[in-house]
Amino acid sequence: MRATVILLTAGLSLVAVGTAGVAASLPLVLASVVLAGVTRVVTDAVEVPATDGVTVRTVATDLWIGPALAAVVLILWLDATPGEVQALGGMVGLVGMLNYFLRPFYHLIYGLGRRLAAL
Q1: Which of 41, 39, 42, 43 is CA-nearest to residue 56?
Q2: Which one, of 83, 85, 97, lies nearest residue 6 by Cα?
């Protein structure tokens, strides 16, 4: 679940920037890094009561990695136009959704491995 949240956050930030008409550049990379830092500080300060299952706190602690990943993607494609930045965000988000849809398969493989190890 964490990888899905991280990839979707990175993809959403890239799609938003591309939709705003901003091309990839070093100031945009710096802005993504600053956003990652601010998100990290804010999520550390959030107090959410613990409940069963996936908590808001568990998900929120990983949100800062999304803008950091977006910065890495922008560094790799520093000459991307706004449309290309938007497309890169869509591809990163697509990988996140692929990870989400493959989770049952991951659990199946993990369960089979545990059963084989118990033999």
Answers
A1: 43
A2: 97
CA angle 56/97/60 to nearest 5° reads 20
CA distance 93 to 51: 28
Model-level pTM? 0.82
Please give the span between the terminal C-alpha atoms of the chain, in angstroms, as a whole number.
29
Strands (E) located in the chain: none
Residue position matching structure tokens 């908590």: 55
- Residue 26's pLDDT is 95
Measure the CA–CA gap between 76 and 36, rounded to whole angstroms.
18
Whole domain around residue 46: which residue ranges? Answer: 2-118
Which stretches of the chain drop beneath a pLDDT of 50?
A: none
pLDDT of residue 48: 65
Number of structural domains, the chain?
1
